[in-house]
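Supplementary notes for students who missed Thursday's class. We covered one full example, reproduced here. Read the sequence, then the structure, then the short commentary at the end.
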Amino acid sequence: MNRPAPVQVPPSQLSDPELAERVAAGDRDAIRFLVKRHNQTLFRTARAILREDGEAEDAVQEAYVKAIRGIGGFRSDAKLSTWLTRIVVNEALGRLRSRKRAAEVIPLAADIDAEGEMREAPDAVTPTPEMAAMRAEARRIMEDRIDALPDSFRTVFVLRAVEEMSVEETAAALNIPEATVRTRFFRARSQLRESLSRSLDMALSDAFHFAGDRCDRITEAVMARL
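Structure (token representation):
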């Protein structure tokens, strides 16, 4: 009598060591799940170092290949996300040293609150075209300021504020002391807050700009009624 084949547990329900074991065995569903789960974190990490969209994508792809091929070396006492982040950090730093390419800005799907933290904006209200334009401009300014941070500060900021990694996870991913993570994150937030404050002051001076079509329209409407 044939016994029914055992039901395989979905990758989403596996622990990190179990998922790593399935990936090492060549389970394509597990590999696909691994990549989709960590894509955003690894891309943002590579982007924080390289500051160039296409180069970051290439670094992430190469890091995944290296990770999957070497996943037998994954230690269960570490988090899989931290292990993967270290691989992409090393890959991105290697590319940065060898290519020295110029940087571009990539949108980060989050806003910065008053404390310099990254938070997803609520979608309670459907934005008008004007609101969308204002939000896009505000985000562009923030992205410019994040990209302007010193390299060591920017990477720590992205891992801590955007990806919300703990101090311990960030230190492990970047192979630096936890005290260094805290110091760099504090200084990154301070620099970002000061930079954004200057930009906001300049923007406020141009708020509700009246010259141009609006002024002409009102003037002509008044003249027509006289």
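Commentary. Residues 178-205 form the longest helix (28 residues). Confidence is low (pLDDT under 50) at residues 101-124. If anything here is unclear, bring it to office hours.
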